[in-house]
Amino acid sequence: MKCLNKSKHINLNSKATRIAAFSVATAVFVGAATTVLAENHGELSRQDSEYSLEQDSYYPSYSSEDDNYTAPGDDNEYTGESEIPGDEDKESSAPDKDSDSDSDEDKEYEDSDSDDEDSDSDDEDSDSDDEDDNSDYDEEKDEDEEEDEDLYLLPGVTNTNPVIDYVLLEDITVDFGEVVRIVEGGSVTGTIFVNAGGELHLEDGGAINGTVILSGFGALLEMNGGVISGQGRGVQVESGARFNQHGGNISNNTADIGGGVLVSGAGSVFNMNDGIIAGNTAIGTAGSLGGGVKVADGATFNLHGGVIEGNTAQSGGGVALTFGSTFNMAGGQVSGNDSVSLGAGVRVSGSAFVMSGGEISRNAGNGVHLNDTAPTFEMIGGTIAHNQGRGIAAATIGSAVTMSGGTISNNNDGGVQVAGSFTMSGSALIDNNRAAAGAGVNLVGENANFNMGGGVISNNVAMSNGGGVSAPNGTFNMSGGSLQNNTAGHGDDIFVPESNYSNVNLA
Q1: Is the Cβ–Cβ distance between 358 and 331 less than 8 Å?
Q2: CB 461 within 8 A of CB 488
Q3: Is the pTM of this model over 0.85?
Q4: Residue 138: pLDDT band by 50, 70, 90 thresholds?
Q5: Ranges of H-type helices in 162-201
Q6: DSSP state of 7
Q7: Which stretches does DSSP call E strand in 362-460?
């Protein structure tokens, strides 16, 4: 933004300036003339005499008849007696001398008038130049005001509620106390930085072709509609910021981790109530996690509605959790996602996943995959179904899965695989899954531990062993619930080899 300053200049050619300078010269001249007069006429006594010199008094004239000084063209008059003791004849000689001076002074006065006319003409030209300068200044000022209207949402703005309904091709920053709205017809191509205490609202018909970075407590993105697409990661939420998605589409974004959304840091929260996160990618290295959403370092993701679908990653195609983060799923869908290795739907690593509703379905691998250090998954409700891999794969020794409600069904590589601990109770249902072995529940490794206190395992089909439960090793304790209508080559409801009888306790 331009800043224009009009400096004030003194015009040395102006009439007022020349008059002031000429008046000073006149005062000097009168003083000198008086001194000469005193020298020519002997001792001159001037008691209580004064000079009055106005701005338009160029040369004073002296009259011998009344001893007065008179400024030509001036109505004001100053009188004062001037006595020369001892010789009165000398007093009469002064007027003759002044008479000659008067003639010269009249001529000079006329010349001065002529000069003043030229000066006035110069002043008019100068005034004209000043008017041109002012005109230029006004035009520049108008241009700046127009620029201000276009740039009012840039850093340092004073308008705290701007609306973007036009195309903006540059990065912008939203600072503390500012609220920026992108509405229908408005789009920003570039990065939008929302700092602590700033708010960004994306409405229906608005578009962001770039990344939104929310940083600091109080930084907020409210996405009610619109599209975030196509320039790196979609949204990054960090350092205690918050992102609420109520609608709209986050699509076709790419990053090494968290292609659609990355939420990281304690206190950072992503609430998804509706909308779509689709077609995003996190591919590049073995650590490329979370094609749709990556949650890390103590952050929280709450999914209440909307769809996370068609995203791809090395691991965790739909959602990936790492390093003490939390995922609460009460609704919505994680569907149709893919991964190169682990967890096409949701990958949980050293974090906690609680599912009370919603659906994890039709992913190209496992619906939920737990690995690395101490991951946990609690299923209270919802559905995990129609995945190409297992419904749940708890593949690490330290993993812990509890299921008190919800349904795991119609998965192509079994319902639940357990390498750590699995506790089943309440109204939980594992039904109609297919696998080579352990179609309902498959214990893998001597550290596997399955405690069944309730729920139903039914209608599952295994090609070889254990249609309902396969326990070739590990521990199986059944104190409640039921196994029914399962089918397998060996052990329809439960398969336990003789070598592991001691580790199986049936109620």
Answers
A1: yes
A2: yes
A3: no
A4: low
A5: none
A6: -
A7: 368-371, 376-379, 383-385, 392-394, 400-403, 407-409, 416-418, 421-424, 429-431, 434-435, 441-443, 449-458
